[in-house]
Each structure stands twice: as structure tokens, then as C-alpha cells.
Specification:
The chain is an alpha/beta fold. Helix content is 35%, strand content 23%. It has one domain (3-180): P-loop containing nucleotide triphosphate hydrolases (Rossmann fold, 3-Layer(aba) Sandwich), CATH 3.40.50. Bound molecules: guanosine-5'-triphosphate (GTP) and magnesium ion.
Length: 189
């Protein structure tokens, strides 16, 4: 059975745990603890180690879904989770103080996942607060990472079919690049 290992990244409160919960066909492994930083993101709990779920796509391809803790103080887990993954769903909440800055930060931090497979970006919580437009996001990507092909969607991680579309786009991207050997762009020249 073919298999994909996908990492959900992005800042605290972007919706990584929610997205994996929406997608997974097995009971999700979650490591939630009380959120001591409610002044920064007002939610009851936060991931402290990882999330894990699974979903089958296409002809019996298993996709392993891992989520990182968004808080920087748990970034030792980022190093561990980064090792196995072959693609990334980067979620950025549009009500963050600096959505574009967060997006560029996580893309830089997990850039190896683009080189190994591919990346899609989901802009979340746009119903809570309108953030940057898709055009502004593509401009920022082109400025900071010229030549990379990264689809961007506005999504609500609570809605399963929106997350399925995002995930399938990533899987198709990864498989096309593997099949046709699309080169990855050099970091900077
Ligand atoms: N209204 C609205 N709520 C959303 C949306 N996306 C996520 N949420 C909510 O925002 C919160 C996101 O929390 P989590 O899924 O725990 O976020 P996380 O990225 O796992 O955060 P950490 O584990 O702390 O890094 C949840 O309460 C979601 O229900 C959205 O598009 N709209
Ligand atoms: Mg989480």
C-alpha cells in the first residue's frame, strides 16, 4: 500500500489539531494540555507534543497525518516530526497579528518538506477576522520564495470536505512531482 506522511504546521490556534480531527478515519492521538497562554491565543488547550491521525485516499493510499505543537517552546518536537514527513499542510490563521510573517516563518522552518514532496497553504479563521488577500499571500510567497509552486486556499478546518480538498491537492502535487521529476527550485542564487 502506498503511503504518504504529511505534517500539519503553523502557529498556535491555526487549526492543526482541528483539521486532523476532521480528516482522520481513526481515533486521533492528541496531546492537549491546558493553555497557559490564553492572553496570546484564547483557547482552552494547546498541543504539547503531536497529533496523529490517518486517512485513506485514492486507491488505498494511506495518509499519515501528523500535527506539530504551534508554540515555539515545543520546537524540539518540530525537529523530530520533520524527519519523516514528505509533505506539509501549512495552516495560518488570518486573525493572527502577522499572518504573512507566520507563513514565511513556518515555510522557512519546514522548507525541507517542500523539497521532499510539496506544500499547500490553508488560510483559516477568515470568518473571524479578514486577513491578507490571496493575492497578497501569493505576492509574499513570490517575493520570499520565488519559483516555488504552492497552492493557497481559504479553509475552515472544522469542515471535513474543505480539508479533504486541501489534502488531495497536496497528495496530487506530491505524486505529480514524483512521477514527472519536477525539479525543486534552488533556495537562492
Ligand atoms: N470560526 C472559526 N474557527 C476556527 C477555524 N479554524 C479553526 N477554528 C477554531 O480555532 C481553534 C483552533 O484550535 P486548534 O485546532 O487547537 O489549533 P492548533 O493549530 O492545533 O493550535 P496549537 O496546538 O495550540 O498549536 C479551534 O477552537 C477551532 O474550532 C475557522 O476557520 N473559523
Ligand atoms: Mg494543536
Amino acid at each position: 500500500m502506498a503511503e504518504h506522511v504529511i505534517l500539519f504546521t503553523g502557529p498556535m490556534g491555526a487549526g492543526k489539531t482541528t483539521a486532523i480531527q476532521s480528516l482522520s478515519e481513526i481515533e486521533v492521538v492528541r496531546t492537549e494540555a491546558n493553555n497557559s497562554e490564553r492572553h496570546i491565543v484564547d483557547k482552552a488547550t494547546t498541543t504539547v507534543a503531536l497529533d496523529y491521525g490517518e486517512i485513506l485516499v485514492g486507491a488505498q493510499e494511506k495518509v499519515r497525518l501528523y500535527g506539530i505543537p504551534g508554540q515555539r517552546r515545543f520546537n524540539f518536537m518540530w525537529t523530530i516530526l520533520k524527519k519523516r514527513a514528505k509533505g506539509m499542510v501549512l495552516l495560518v490563521n488570518s486573525d493572527s497579528p502577522d499572518p504573512i510573517g507566520e507563513m514565511i516563518f513556518f515555510l522557512e522552518e519546514f522548507r525541507v518538506l517542500y523539497d521532499r514532496g510539496g506544500v499547500v497553504i490553508g488560510v483559516t479563521r477568515a470568518d473571524v477576522m479578514p486577513g491578507p488577500t490571496l493575492a497578497e499571500i501569493y505576492d509574499a510567497l513570490e517575493r520570499t520564495n520565488p519559483g516555488l509552486v504552492i497552492p493557497v486556499f481559504t479553509v475552515d478546518p472544522r469542515v471535513r470536505n474543505q480539508m479533504q480538498n486541501l489534502l488531495l491537492t497536496l497528495v496530487v502535487n506530491i505524486e505529480m512531482r514524483a512521477a514527472f521529476g519536477v525539479p525543486t527550485v534552488a533556495r537562492s542564487v
